Amino acid sequence: MANHSQLSFQDASSPIMEELMGFHDHALMVALAICSLVLYLLTTTLTGKLSSNTVDAQVIEIVWTILPAMVLVALALPSLRILYMMDEINEPDLTLKAIGHQWYWTYEYTDLNNLTFDSYMTPTTDLPMGHFRLLEVDHRVVVPTEATVRVIVTADDVLHSWAVPSLGVKTDAIPGRLNQTSLVATRPGVFYGQCSEICGANHSFMPIVVESTPLANFENWSSSLLSQ
């Protein structure tokens, strides 16, 4: 959960998010090195003596051609690695389908006798003490901890986006199309997200809450819903 005046990411709760945070720090260090070099060159140019020397400078031309290419490679390789990791889904333990509507989500657990429910934002007047305003829902998505969950995302009306920052998940929900992603929650907890695609007047009022719980608790939860 993000805090006021927080400058960094939320705490990573999945392997993908840990990789994304590492790449973010790596890219920032590269940008810092470039900015430092440019600042040094500007300072020496402004404070040094002017020179009208126009001799050939083949060495410096080679350097300022090869060095940017090396920087791009240093950014591209780890970026492509993470991109393929995010796209790889191997033998998921559970399949969850998220359907975006104006302005709520419908979830289907296709592996659990088609367990289906709608998830609406909890109104402020009904919000229990200690819960987060505009982020809490009446029915949470519950997943087992350390299980590979395949999430199939689509929409029923307009464009939506299913995003949970601390799990490193953000997938567009497009009417008539199925997009898929995966998540692995490495620790028990409650993780908050929101629709990240402007989808109408109440775009800000369709939050996402994912609760990671041990397998035994997940089985009890699913059994209680199926018995209703």
From TrEMBL:
Domain called Cytochrome oxidase subunit II copper A binding: residue spans: 91-224
GO-annotated cellular components: mitochondrial inner membrane
Catalytically driven reaction(s): 4 Fe(II)-[cytochrome c] + O2 + 8 H(+)(in) = 4 Fe(III)-[cytochrome c] + 2 H2O + 4 H(+)(out)
This protein's name: Cytochrome c oxidase subunit 2
Keyword Translocase on entry: yes
One of the GO biological process terms: ATP synthesis coupled electron transport
InterPro entries attached to this UniProt entry: CcO_II, CcO_II-like_C, CcO_II_C, Copper_CuA, Cupredoxin, Cyt_c_oxidase_su2, Cyt_c_oxidase_su2_TM_dom, Cyt_c_oxidase_su2_TM_sf
Keyword Electron transport found: yes
Pfam families: COX2, COX2_TM
Cofactor detail note: Binds a copper A center.
Residue ranges annotated for the Cytochrome oxidase subunit II transmembrane region profile domain, each copy included: 1-90
Keywords from the named record: Copper, Electron transport, Magnesium, Membrane, Metal-binding, Mitochondrion, Mitochondrion inner membrane, Respiratory chain, Translocase, Transmembrane, Transmembrane helix, Transport
Residue stretches in coiled coil: none
Span of the signal peptide: none
Localization: Mitochondrion inner membrane
Family (UniProt): Belongs to the cytochrome c oxidase subunit 2 family.
